[in-house]
Write a structure and sequence with these properties.
- The complex is a heterodimer.
- Chain A is built from five helices and four strands; from the N terminus they run αβββααααβ.
- In chain A, strand 2 and strand 3 form a beta hairpin.
- Chain A is an alpha+beta fold.
- Chain A has one domain (3-144): Sufe protein. Chain: A (Alpha-Beta Complex).
- Chain A has helices spanning 3-15, 65-78, 83-98, 110-117, 126-143, and strands at residues 29-35, 40-48, 54-62, 150-151.
- By secondary structure, chain B is an alpha/beta fold.
- Chain B is built from 15 helices and 17 strands.
- In chain B, the strands form five sheets. Chain B has a seven-stranded mixed beta sheet, sandwiched between helices. In chain B, strands 13-14-17-16 form a four-stranded antiparallel beta sheet, covered by helices on one side.
- The longest helix of chain B has 21 residues, at 296-316.
- The chains are: A alpha+beta, B alpha/beta.
- At the A-B interface, helix 1 and helix 5 of A face helix 13 of B.
Chain lengths: 156, 406
């Protein structure tokens, strides 16, 4: 997929109409993330139930189309998963966006993998990988309750 | 000025970049290289290589002469009084670090002030910031006006009795504003203030005359001047370079080394420690000859025409907002497009073969002031044409289409 196709797809799908944008009522975990190079900001809110299942997830933020679409797709996929599954999906996504040719997670259905793979075009642009991964790192920070703001310049 | 002919001197324009002809609008970041410069590096390494300096064998003497020839060429190009006022560095960044460091060691006192502007590139802010930390030096910022300029009046307003150094850009790499260096220097000198100029954008695009500008230091980036990377020039008035201590210690910069004392070499060796970027220096002579062959006044005229044309074109384009509208403007067109992040813009333009830069262009202070996280920037060089700017405008329109904008 070339970049224009990537843009067309994700902009049409998520950029103009992001899912789960806003602040979850009664959230019990949250974290902020910042990409100082692009100025992207994201704030992820989680509502976990007693079984540590993500009952609700949302995000607020501003930034480039890739960072916003990535956050939108992420919130869609994570809803309904438990903490452990969510972190495993994040690992899988980060692996794919950096080096792996495909997603391997057993916690994602095939159509969910297809949806996520539309971000794989970012790989060609190392500068933009940070845009795509910002919300995912922030999600882990929220789950782990680190209370630390994610800064993409201080990640590997 | 025959642009087609000039463009043919740059081998990169024979290449297809992602199957497109290259529209290179990122010369403020770094310029492309003419064949004469590329060939000179190859030739030097292939047939003439030796280190410069102490050795007495044939190749060393020949290389030393070539190295010193470039110094003389630079001196003439910028009309410095003395060839020993030309110091080679690894870049303009090192040149500015050198000045801040040695002035910090020897000249500035606790509580002194350095005046910079909101337009400055990080390399003309961060080195002074080090002094803020280590020596309690205060940094003041001259502010931009609505047109993205810093005026002489604004500089005058920000000078205090503690201002010891004014360190400013010659030509803003974001708004394109050309600062009145000569007038600022005259004012500064009347108050005993040293003037340091970041000439990264000035040197490739303006006629330089150090004796006319009269500034105390001027930093040049060679890779933005159709020259090799890894090389910069620091011009410094002889009295300062003689008075100030060396920046780095090592081979080449010493006179006598004993267990209990060391004396330093004469100018310019005193500031050129270790093996220098020999091949780059020698090839840089070709960059200067290239610019002189075209004629710097022709370069200035050509780029002014391009900027005017580009400005008109982008002003007519809905939802494109140009950053800054200085009366005296160099070859830089920075802009934002409503509703589309600059990084998205740059990536999409790239697919059409149009290479621009997006980001804060190492000017976070300026972008904070403008209240935007980033901007897109198209910048021109000798090889650009009006058609390149048409292609930029077309690519912007394609980008807007993708984002469903009119």
């Amino acid at each position: 997929m070339n970049l224009k196709e990537l843009y067309q797809e994700i902009i049409l799908e998520h950029g103009k109409n992001p899912r789960n944008l806003g602040k979850t009522d009664d959230f019990n975990k949250d974290a902020k993330g910042h990409n100082p190079l692009c100025g992207d900001n994201v704030h992820v809110y989680l509502k976990l139930n007693g079984q540590k299942i993500v009952e609700d997830i949302s995000f607020e933020g501003s930034g480039c189309a890739i960072s916003m679409a990535s956050a939108s797709i992420m919130t869609d996929l994570i809803k309904g998963k438990n903490e452990h599954e969510a972190k495993e999906i994040v690992e899988d996504f980060l692996g794919m966006i950096k080096e792996n040719p495909k997603l391997n997670s057993e916690n994602l259905k095939e159509d969910e993998k297809t949806k996520l793979m539309c971000l794989s075009g970012v790989k060609k642009y190392p500068m933009r990988v940070k845009c795509a991964t910002l919300s995912w790192h922030t999600l882990v920070s929220a789950i782990d309750n680190t209370q630390e703001e994610i800064n993409t310049e201080r990640l590997d | 000025m025959n642009i087609d002919k000039i463009k043919k001197e740059f081998p990169i324009f024979d290449e297809k970049i992602q199957n497109n002809d290259l529209v290179y609008l990122d010369s403020a970041n770094s310029s492309q290289k003419p064949k004469v410069v590329i060939d000179r590096i190859n030739e030097f390494y292939s047939k003439e290589f030796s280190n410069v300096g102490r050795s007495v064998h044939y190749l060393a003497v020949a290389a030393t002469n070539l190295y010193e020839n470039t110094r003389t060429s630079v001196q003439k190009f910028i009309n410095a009084k003395d060839k020993n006022e030309i110091v080679f560095t690894k870049g303009a960044t090192e040149a500015l670090n050198l000045v801040a460091n040695v002035l910090g060691q020897n000249y500035l006192q606790d509580g002194d002030e350095v005046l910079i502007t909101e337009l400055e590139h990080h390399s003309n802010y961060v080195p002074w910031h080090f002094l803020r930390k280590s020596k309690n030096i205060k940094i003041n910022f001259a502010e931009i006006n609505d047109d993205g300029e810093v005026t002489l009046e604004e500089i005058e307003k920000k000078i205090t009795s503690r201002t010891k150094v004014i360190s400013i850009t010659h030509l803003s790499n974001v708004t394109g504003a050309i600062l009145p260096i000569k007038e600022i220097t005259e004012l500064a000198h009347s108050k005993g203030i040293i003037v340091v100029v970041d000439g990264c954008q000035g040197a490739p695009h303006l006629r330089l005359d150090m004796q006319d500008l009269d500034c105390d230091f001027y930093a040049i980036s060679c890779h933005k001047m159709y020259g090799p990377t890894g090389l910069g020039v620091l011009y410094g008035k002889k009295k300062w370079l003689e008075e100030l201590p060396p920046y780095q210690g090592g081979g080449g910069m010493i006179n006598e080394v004993k267990k209990d004392r060391i004396s330093y070499g004469d100018l310019p060796n005193k500031f050129e420690a270790g093996t220098m970027a020999t091949a780059q220096v020698i090839a840089f002579d070709q960059s200067i000859k290239f610019l002189e062959r075209i004629g710097i006044d022709n370069v200035v005229k050509h780029e002014a025409d391009l900027v005017e044309y580009g400005q008109e074109l982008l002003q007519k384009n809905n939802s494109v907002k140009l950053i800054g509208n200085p009366k005296n403007k160099g070859g830089v067109l920075s802009f934002t497009i409503e509703g589309i992040h600059p990084h998205d813009v740059a990536n999409i333009l790239d697919e059409d073969g149009v290479a621009i830069r997006a980001g804060h262009h190492c000017c976070q202070i300026l972008h904070d002031k403008l209240n935007i996280p980033a901007s897109s920037r198209a910048s021109v060089g000798v090889y650009n044409t009006r058609e390149d700017l048409d292609k930029l405008n077309d690519a912007i329109n394609n980008c807007k289409k993708i984002f469903n904008q009119k």
